[in-house]
Model the fold of this input.
Amino acid sequence: ASISISVGFENTTEDDMYAAVSKWAELLKEKSGGTMELVLYPNSQLGSKNDLIDSMQMGEHVITVADGAFLADYNAPDLGILYAPYLFTSWDQVWTLVESEWFAEQNDLLAENGLRMLSADWKLGTRNLFLVDPVEGPEDLKGRKIRVPSNQIQIEETNAIGATATPMAAADVYQALQTGTIDGCENVNSALLSMKWCEVAKYVYE
Done:
C-alpha cells in the first residue's frame, strides 16, 4: 500500500524552501519505487507551525520545517542554543554537531514527546531584522512591535532588546506590516522576498 505524508510549511511556492521540499518529495518517490509520496502544503495552508506540531503529536502523518528555537519548547530545551548567533565559524562545524551523540540525545528527547527530526542538514540563511521605518541603533527598537514566530526563545530575546515581541503566523505578516499592527519582523532574506514583505518593510538590518 502507498503511504502519503503531508508537508506543511510557511514559505510560498516562490521561496527556496519550496524548491528544497519539492526535491525531497521527488527523491522519496524515486527511492520508494512510488510507494511513498510527500504532498506539499506551502504558505501555511495546514495552519501554523505550532498547529502542525500538535498534529504530529496526535499521530497524524505530517511533517514541517522547524528550528531549534521551536523544538526547545517540546522537551528538548538545550536545542534552543542552536538558535543563538555566532556559534559556528564553518558549516563543517555544524555538520559535526548534527552527527554528534549530544544531537542524537536531543532527538531522543523529542521522540519522548511524539516528535522526531528526519533531517537536520538544511541551509536557508541568516536571520535579519526588517523594519517599516529606519533605526540608528538598538535603543531605537524600544517599544517597537516586532513579529516573531510563536516560540519562547524568540519572544524573550526580542523583549530583551527593548522591542515588543508579537507572535504571529508568517501568512499574516504582510497585512500587519501594511496596517501598522507591527513595526517589523525578523526572518531570512528569502522570506523577505518571497512573502513580499519588502514592499512594506524596506529597511533591512543584519
